[in-house]
Amino acid sequence: MKRRFFLTLLGASGATLLLSSPQKARGYLSADTLALIHAVQQHMFPEGTTMPSAKSFNATEFLNETVSHSSFDKDIRKFIIDGSEKLQKREESRFLHYSSRERERALRSYEETPFGSGWLDRIMLLSLEGLLSDPIYGGNSKQSGWRALATRGGEPRPTSRYIEL
After folding, report:
1. What global pTM score does this model have?
2. Residue 41 CB neighbours (<10 A)
3. Where would I find the H helices in the chain?
4. 3-class secondary structure for 4-33?
5. Cβ within 8 Å of residue 28, ≥6 positions away
6. Residues 64-97, buried b or exposed e (16+ Cβ, 10 A)?
7. How far apart are CA 129 and CA 124, in angstroms?
8. What is the pLDDT of residues 93-115, one digit of tens each?
9. Distance CA 59, CA 53 (A)
């Protein structure tokens, strides 16, 4: 599948284009939200598998920059924040201290709820965007996602990030 088609498909399904410069200072996602999302992404893309780990392809940084961009859908941003808070509440703020087995149990249980299922889908979608996007957007560090799938990005490659709106 060509990179442009993949990105177009994601855009058509409600995902955003991968945009702009770091936005951590804007505060859309709190440190607590980012810590929880990072733990979920690390569970979805762990160390030691054939795919790059969430940490190695900068999944959390990519997600934070993407959802903090001015063009990102505000309702989806709120959904991401609300989903993190609901998971924390369900697990009585213990999720970050869980073992891998306990995280699996908690996420499978959350997945059984309509809200939780949608939230996990969105986190997975944004993580996959980070894994497969051009590295210029902050994810896919050292083209690790492309290398894992024995592919390369689309041509022509972007020369700059999108501008702030």
Report:
1. 0.81
2. 23
3. 3-12, 31-44, 59-68, 74-90, 100-111, 114-132, 144-148
4. HHHHHHHHHCCCCCCCCCCCHHHCCCCHHH
5. 64, 67, 68, 77, 81
6. bbbbbbeebeeeebebbbebbeebbeebeeebee
7. 9
8. 999 999 999 999 999 999 999 99
9. 9
